[in-house]
């Protein structure tokens, strides 16, 4: 292989590794967002299910490893270190296999995950008091912003302990439909209605929440597919460059 061709491969591999490093940072950032976010629907699931927490740790680990591999790939490409290029190829192959396995597992488990999500939310609605700032206030935010009430329908709230055991006509304040007459609008907790009709939204949040999750999953899927394509290109280029390097030259390794 000509010297000019090797140079082109080397700098293309450097570019791909730089992109790989950036996409790894994005995946790690998303994992951190899932782990620490308390202003979206994810916080409701995270408080009640270990599955979301485990998924966030996996994303952080994969993102961190991808960043490390991108860094070592850049060093191996620039200085033509065969051992780093071989290690880079092996790690990329393992990451790609892990990503495909995880994607297939999530796809096969989508119905159980959907059932688990519905169970978590219905249990939270039953025990809602308006005092849990993490999950309950986040669910209030979801209902008010998505203009919905309950999971499948507002009837889910009829099982709430406070509503069942109280003689007053209570309803969750976050379900309040502002276009209907009623008491003062509040963001969280329970409100009392004096009229015969409860001034709340009449549609459940299941469809809106599922759409929100699908929209966000589409973004993550796009990032993961982009990373997979870069991984394949990186593996091909690393093997081409590795084969073109006839002999190790450790004098090319930078000294610090």
TrEMBL record:
Which terms are listed as keywords in the entry? Membrane, Transmembrane, Transmembrane helix
- Gene3D superfamilies associated with the record: Tetraspanin
Q: Which domain of life is it from?
A: Eukaryota
Q: Where in the cell is it found?
A: Membrane
Q: What is the protein's membrane topology class?
A: Multi-pass membrane protein
Q: Name one GO cellular component term.
A: plasma membrane
Claim: Zinc-finger is one of the keywords in the record: no
Give the matching InterPro entries: Tetraspanin/Peripherin, Tetraspanin_animals, Tetraspanin_CS, Tetraspanin_EC2_sf
Instruction: Give the protein family.
Output: Belongs to the tetraspanin (TM4SF) family.
The protein's name: Tetraspanin
The source organism is: Champsocephalus esox (pike icefish)
Organism lineage string: Eukaryota, Metazoa, Chordata, Craniata, Vertebrata
